[in-house]
Amino acid sequence: MKKNIFWFLAAALLTTACYNEGTLVNNPSPLMLYQHKPTEVRLLALAKSYAEAINRNLEDKVVHPGQYADYGVALAKLGLLEQANQMFNNEKTLFPNSSKYVDFLKRTYTPNFFADSHFDTSKIDLKTLDTIKVEFTPEELAAQQELEADPEYQKMLKQQQLEEKEAKAKAVKQARQERAKAKEAERKAQTKAKEKEKREKEQAKKAAEKERAKAKKEEQKARDEAKKAELKAKEEAKKAEQKAKEEARKAEKKAKQEAKEAEIAAQKAAEKAAAEAKKAEEKAQKEAEKAEKAAKREAEKAAKKAQKQNEQNTKVEDSEEEDE
Amino acid sequence: MKVYPQLRTMKHTSIPLIFLALLLIISCKSEKKVTTYEELYKEQPFTILIVPTQDNTKRLQEKSTQDRVLNEELDMAATFLQQSCVEPLVSQGYYAIPPLAGNTILEKYGKTYRQLMLDNITDLNNQYGVDAILLVAIHKWMEPEVNEVVVFAEFTLRSVKSGLELMHTWVRGDKLQPVDDKGDPIELAADLAFIKTTQMKPRLAHRCLLLQGMSDFALRNMPTSASRWMFKQDQYTSANPNFYSFLMNTDGSIEREKYNEDAFGNECFTD
Questions:
Q1: What is the crossing angle of helices A28-36 and B65-84, to 10°?
Q2: Which of residues 55-114 of B touch A (CB under 8 A)?
């Protein structure tokens, strides 16, 4: 339920804050006193209170409903009819819904100015009110005298004064105590803050140390890792070297083998070439032999032919000789 | 103890949820303004006339000056109640006719508090543009302890046009003052400021502060005037019960609780 009330109050405060129309009077006392016992002295105090409240509201740029109307009534009762009428007009202008009752007020208090609708919502000059001189009424004075003559009243007054004095002293004491309390609280707060600061510093230090240790650890770890990586790289390089060597060896071996194979192949080719050359030689020889044989044959043939020719020639010669 | 992360998360999320649920229950339990102030929503009054306080408190026979002073104190507190109703009404967006002007109207109108409560008062609207009248009454003052003052008050808002009661609240106000080691009451800073501004005697100031708090609490709960944009949203906020107690604690905090009607009657109307 308390929570509910808290929210309600907060909402109420918020509403008030959002819709601030100022206040009707700065101090509720003059209105209360005047309504309790209307006297001129109290009326003047009330009019001043209204004027001050209006001026303050004007400074805050707010208008309180009814403020001009009530101030107008107070002015009219003080005999300032023209100003009162102006205040009534102000109310009517600012709050048109008030026109019916303000007209009634105008008819009641300022009938001679009823037709005058002049209004002025500028700041009120409080000096106008200061010029008004009011006196205590005979009844007020009599009542005052009666009161003053009353020993019981005097006693009560004294008691009240004493009480007020005591209350003031108490208030002062209370204020002093509160100040001391506040100081103490401040001191405590300061100590607390210092302790907190110290704690925080220590915590920060610890954290920094922790951080440093962590960083160190991490650095070490990184170093180890770097070492490991280096070792690994070395190993890998070694392996790669070995592999390269092996590969080179293999390549060499392969090259050698290939060379050998090439040699063999060359040898074979040479052999083959030799064989082929031999064959060609043989062939050439055969062909030469053949050609020789053919030449021989041709020669033989030619010889035979020549012989035949010779023989023929001889025969012809013989024949010719014979013929001859 | 090992706390499982799931459990911790549940704890964090469930607390606001429970709180919200409780708030919902509380707000559902209390009546909404739209139902409590049904007639007021229908009529939508704007200009309100505050009738001077009807003081039903018993007065002391003035055998001594002290008695007279006490009676005067009660009279002044009653007059104060009328003016303390202006600000809450204005803050809710109503046009409250100020005390001097209002009293002039009522003097001319010439009806008593009882007549204003029961008679046909439509003239007030025709002649003066009043939509509703606020009737406030103080029924009883009590001072059970040296640092405590109790008052029983009644707030009634009556429509001028239809004569219907638009709001009727009974409040038991109670103001406590802190005491020192000797048991003497001491003033709170806020109370002291009020005393300083008003120049009132402390006892009267406490009565006035209590009345101011009560009227503020009772009237600020009235629906926002139709002239305001929050008028519609405000219908669904919770309304005050018809009978409730209003307590101003020694630390200045305020508590409000629904009050039993019979208990209120017994306490208020019996000696």
A1: 120
A2: 64-66, 69, 72, 75-76, 79-80, 82-84, 86-87, 90-93, 95-101, 103-105, 108
Provide the 3-class DSSP secondary structure of residue B229: coil
Range of the domain at B240: 33-269
Three-class DSSP category at B200: coil
B107: domain CATH number is 3.40.50.10610
Given phi > 0 = left and psi -120 to 50 = alpha, else beta, which region is B155? beta
pLDDT digits (tens, 9 = 90+) for A115-154: 888 888 888 888 888 888 877 777 777 777 776 776 666 6
First to last CA, chain A: 187
The model's pTM:
0.64
Task: Report the relative pairing of strands B95-97 and B132-142 from DSSP bridges.
Answer: unpaired
d(CA A163, CA B200): 13
Cα–Cα distance between A80 and A129 in angstroms, integer? 9
B73 domain-assigned: yes
Binned at pLDDT 50, 70 and 90, residue A23 comes out as: confident
Query: Tell me: the pLDDT tens digits for B113-143?
Result: 999 999 999 999 999 999 999 999 999 999 9
